[in-house]
Amino acid sequence: MTRYLINFSYDGSNYNGYQKQKGLNTIQGKMEEALKQINNNKNTKFSSSGRTDAFVHAINQYGHCDIDVNITEYKLKRALNSLLPDDIYVKSTKVVDDEFHSRYNAKKKEYIYKINMGEFNPIERKYVYQLGKKLNIEKMKEAINYIIGTYDFKYLSSNEIEEKNTIRTIYNAKIKIKDNYLEMSFIGSGFLKYMVRIIVGILIQIGLEKYDVKEMKNILEGKGKTNYKKIAPPEGLYLKSVTY
Question: Which bin fits 179, alpha (ψ -120 to 50), beta or left (φ > 0)?
C-alpha cells in the first residue's frame, strides 16, 4: 500500500460541494469513483485538505489516498485525468509517508474572493460575484485589518459549526482592485464553515456603507448586530493554495 498526495483543481459550478453526499454530485465522489477503478475496483477513501461549499472553486486543492496497486506518480496522474470529468484536473501526484494527512498536516491555506462592481457580465456569473455596485474600498481595507491575528472566529462562521475549537489565525488579509474588479485574499491557519463568505459579506456591507467600519471588530468580539450574517455568494470564492 502506498499513500499519495494529489494536487488538483476544479470548477465547482456543477457540484454540491466537496464532501461526498448520497445521491448528489460532489468532488470527493468523483475522485473516489476514479480511484476505485485504478485501485483494482476497491473502495478508496480520498481525504482533502478541507471541504469547499457548493459552487466554490479550487485552484490548488490537495488530498491523499492509499493505493494497493503498483503505479508511478506520473501514471497515476494520467489515469486520474483520463477518468475524471473535464471540470476536475489533477496537477500532480506525490508519494508521501504513511502518516501524512492532507488536512492535519496543512500549515496554511489561502482563499481569494472576486467581485465585479461594474456592469453585469453573464459569462463570468459562475466565477465572479456580479455585485454591480461601487464600494468604498478604503473603508473595507480598514475593516479587514481587524481580522488579522489569532482570534475565536465563532461569530464569523456558520451557526451549524462542528469544530469544538473555533480559534484560528489569519496571517494576512488584503484587498486589491483593478478597474471594476475587486479581489480579496485571506491567508490563515485554517478556516471554519462559511467563515470567508461571512467575512466577505460583512466587508461588502461596510463597502456599501450600510455598516460602520468598526462593526467588523464588534462582530468578532460578539458585540455586533443581531442579523449581521450576510453570507457572500459562493461563486466568487476560490481555494487558491495550501501550504504543508
Answer: left
CATH of 108-243, one of 3.30.70.660, 3.40.50.1820, 1.10.8.60, 3.30.870.10: 3.30.70.660
103: cell is 488536512
- Rounded (5°) CA angle 16-187-171: 145
pTM: 0.95
Which one-letter DSSP state was computed for residue 9? Answer: E
Average predicted confidence (pLDDT) for the chain: 96
Backbone angles phi, psi at 100, to 5 degrees: -65, 140
As annotated, the active-site residues are 53
CA atoms within 13 A on the CB side of 115: 22
pLDDT value of position 152: 96
